[in-house]
Design goal:
about 130 residues; 5 helices; Arc Repressor Mutant, subunit A; mainly alpha; three-stranded antiparallel beta sheet
């Protein structure tokens, strides 16, 4: 009679983490869903640009450096579809259109903060390496 010993996975950051296949699949699906909704390089910068209040299309295009009008329009529609932003049309002459974040968009605050912090850390690490090579 032989005994098979299961290897314990190495700790990640000092924490042992054992997940079932179903939990791993569920986690992977959740991450895929989040990446699908926030895909591309423009959605989060648009959300950050809107974080200080409502903006007109032209203002957004100036704030989000490098984005074309066509791409901004597409991204804003997707943000509306996913309930992160609303489009408000005012009956002025000429018509005024503004975009504003929804209360639901605040659910992204911790994600944006974590990405910002990681980005600062990563940039410092990479720039630090390139300076030490010189």
């Amino acid at each position: 009679m032989s005994t098979v010993l299961e290897a314990t996975p190495p700790p990640v950051n000092g924490i042992h983490s054992i997940h079932s296949a179903a939990e791993c699949t569920q986690s992977a699906q959740a991450v895929q869903d989040a990446l699908y909704v926030l895909s591309g390089k423009w959605k989060l910068p648009i959300i950050v640009a809107l974080s200080t209040g409502p903006r007109r299309f032209g203002e957004l295009q100036r704030l989000v450096s490098g984005i074309t009008a066509k791409v901004l329009s597409k991204e804003l529609k997707e943000l509306e579809m996913n309930e992160f932003a609303v489009r408000r049309v005012y009956a002025t002459m000429p018509v005024t259109v503004e975009y504003e974040l929804t209360a639901y968009s605040q659910s992204l605050n911790s994600i944006i903060e974590a990405l910002r912090d990681w980005g600062i850390q990563h940039r410092a690490r990479i720039l630090g390496k390139s300076k030490s090579v010189d």
